[in-house]
Design a protein that fits this description.
The protein contains 16 helices and two strands. By secondary structure, it is an all-alpha fold.
């Protein structure tokens, strides 16, 4: 069995049946697995997915305080920009292009730490990174942790049900996990600690970094705009934290092949390019699946890529040492041949 087929903790209902077909669990099975995996009294190794949702639960009150006490035109605008653009773009910059795919490298640890903490801490790197490698290896196949063919709920609760690493990895397999994570700067457990906690990261380090990040940003927002701005943006972060869990269901055609000729060039899976995620977060998903290690996925002129603009700016300033960009390869191998073929067909019809 390939490493990416066993690195994640399989759900109780399994990834595939005896005929290698995707198992599509019922809503009751998915919810049962979800609450079972949040139960740290049954197994303390469930601590990381629980922490991920504790953050969301802690952010929800800020959202309601914003709605009840601070809703004005400027706070609504601030909430929109922070949740839809800043949080989304940062997720693409940090979790997606750097932590998972290593599409660029920082000049030093300071700039890595700076970029990591540019926004309110919501998603644990470990849960995102390892599972996203699996997603690319098994895209839209059984074992893909957010396989859209199994339905919305399967994807929405994937961070608990499908994305945590397996709890029975060998020492060699855990070392492979460490190799996939070491460039992120997130400190690793020893193998003995992994056997105790079931995770790459240690609870003390994860909780401390979370609390320090939140304390810094609440203080910063308060100094700029008082409790109104702080509650607004913390509430917006919670809104994003819930909304982002819907992306892979939408980004893979809701489980159907919805690729469009001339828009989506990667034909190996159901990933599609969507205008809204592309414009607000640089997430041109089909392009990304075509060239996952590219620091840029907005290749065409209309494909705004805010994440790429940040990376390019940091490179200009010297904070990013190097990056990978596959725009030329995209045009040479995919876009230009299609355009030339269309022009030839039109010319043939005219003659």
């Amino acid at each position: 069995m390939h490493f990416f087929e066993k690195v994640l903790q399989p759900p109780a209902y399994g990834w595939k049946d005896q005929n290698d077909n995707l198992i599509k669990p019922t809503a009751a099975q998915i919810l049962g697995e979800f609450f079972s995996r949040l139960n740290i009294f049954r197994d303390k190794k469930n601590w990381l997915p629980l922490l991920s949702w504790v953050k969301i639960l802690c952010l929800i009150p800020f959202f309601f305080v914003f709605l009840i006490y601070y809703i004005e035109w400027w706070t609504v605008l601030a909430a929109f920009v922070y949740s839809m653009i800043i949080m989304g773009t940062h997720g693409t910059i940090w979790h997606h292009r750097y932590c998972t795919h290593g599409a660029y490298t920082f000049r030093n640890k300071f700039w890595r730490f700076f970029t990591q903490n540019l926004t309110i801490n919501v998603i644990p790197e470990e849960i995102y990174v390892i599972s996203h490698h699996v997603h690319h290896s098994l895209s839209d196949k059984p074992g893909d942790p957010y396989n859209a063919q199994a339905g919305f709920l399967y994807c929405f609760l994937a961070d608990v049900n499908h994305q945590p690493i397996a709890k029975d990895l060998s020492e060699a397999e855990f070392k492979r996990v460490q190799q996939l994570m070491e460039h992120t700067g997130v400190k690793s457990n020893t193998y003995a600690q992994y056997q105790k906690w079931g995770s790459y990261v240690n609870p003390k380090g994860a909780i401390l970094s979370w609390l320090l990040n939140w304390a810094f940003w609440y203080a910063a927002f308060y100094l700029i705009g008082g409790h109104a701005l702080a509650c607004t943006l913390f509430g917006a972060a919670g809104f994003w934290g819930i909304g982002v869990r819907t992306f892979n269901y939408e980004g893979h055609g809701k489980g159907e092949d919805r690729k469009k000729e001339g828009t989506d060039y990667n034909l190996k899976d159901n990933s599609i390019n969507q205008l809204w995620p592309g414009f607000v977060a640089g997430e041109w998903h089909n392009n990304h699946h075509l060239y996952p290690k590219s620091a840029r996925s907005g290749f065409k002129p209309h494909q705004i890529d805010l994440a790429w603009y940040y990376i390019k700016m940091m490179h200009t300033f010297g904070a990013v040492k190097q990056y990978k960009c596959f725009k030329k390869q995209f045009y040479a191998k995919h876009y230009s041949p299609v355009v030339c073929e269309k022009q030839a067909n039109i010319a043939e019809k005219l003659t």
